[in-house]
Design a protein that fits this description.
Number of helices: 2
Largest sheet: none
Distance between the termini: 102 Å
Strand content: under 5%
Radius of gyration: 33 Å
Oligomer: single chain
Number of domains: 1
Shape: rod-shaped
Length: about 120
């Protein structure tokens, strides 16, 4: 593929700079010599090394996405439990209020005009 025919454009605009920084971080972690990179052109770096960089980048991005999904799922479940507990407390309080009202009405009925046995 010739110069200017890049097909790997980022989906999120503005992510290119972060991805380039990420690429160099991974290369440094893998002890890959980046001195052969000239003006952003990685063609002089061994294919095996660039593949390792790309593979590790993908692995890290998948790990970050999985972590994010797990945290979001946990937050959703936690919010669901909190809502259920709140509803349960409200229902218990409502039941207790109804029960007190019924007891008061029964007392009034029995003591002030109710049937006596």
């Amino acid at each position: 593929m010739g110069t200017g025919q890049k097909s790997n454009t980022p989906v999120v605009l503005g992510a290119q700079q972060a991805l380039n920084k990420f690429k160099y971080e991974i290369a440094n972690e893998l002890n890959i010599d980046t001195s052969k990179v000239q003006g952003g052109y990685w063609g002089y770096v061994i294919t095996r090394d660039t593949g390792a960089i790309g593979g590790n980048m993908v692995r890290r991005m998948i790990e970050a996405a999985e972590r994010s999904l797990a945290e979001q799922t946990f937050a959703d479940v936690n919010a669901g439990f909190q809502t259920a507990l709140s509803n349960q407390a409200q229902n218990a309080q409502s039941f207790q209020t109804q029960n007190q009202n019924q007891n008061q009405n029964q007392f009034k009925f029995n003591n002030f005009g109710g049937y006596s046995s």
